[in-house]
Design goal:
elongated, 131 residues, mainly beta
């Protein structure tokens, strides 16, 4: 008995010249919604401030953290290929935030982003909770 399977077709895209073609992984993160701001704590071990890029486009926030030091190739570890990947976190937060006023701080691989809410959104939220 023969088994017929459909052939897999792959589409290839040309890599963008502005973005390097390498794999990334999604970091672990915590999110806390405060009355006047949103606080994101992103765990990106092995990165430094110079390797962090924060981009806001419309309602989307993208955080890319590149590792500054890769593990030596002669060091053996389980799942070494995952250890060497950079981090990228894409979130759709909405239009209710003042993205130009983002404050970022990194310490020992923990990136903390504080994103203030727009005044109209913050006051409407406070009124809703007061009622």
């Amino acid at each position: 008995m023969n088994t017929l399977t459909a052939a897999l077709t792959t589409t290839s895209r040309r890599p963008s010249p502005s973005k390097p073609n390498h794999e990334v992984r999604r970091p672990n993160f915590d999110c806390r919604d405060l009355p006047d701001e949103l606080r994101l704590v992103i765990y990106v071990p092995g990165t430094e401030a110079a390797g962090v890029e924060i981009e806001a486009r419309g309602p989307d926030l993208t955080v890319t953290a590149r590792k500054s030091h890769f593990v030596r190739p002669n060091w053996t570890a389980l799942h070494l290929e995952a250890v060497q990947k950079d981090y990228r976190l894409k979130l759709r937060l909405g239009h209710g935030f003042a993205y130009p006023d983002i404050r970022a701080e990194i310490h020992e691989g923990i990136l903390t982003l504080t994103i203030p809410k727009r005044p109209a959104v913050a006051s409407a939220r406070a009124e809703r909770f007061a009622a």
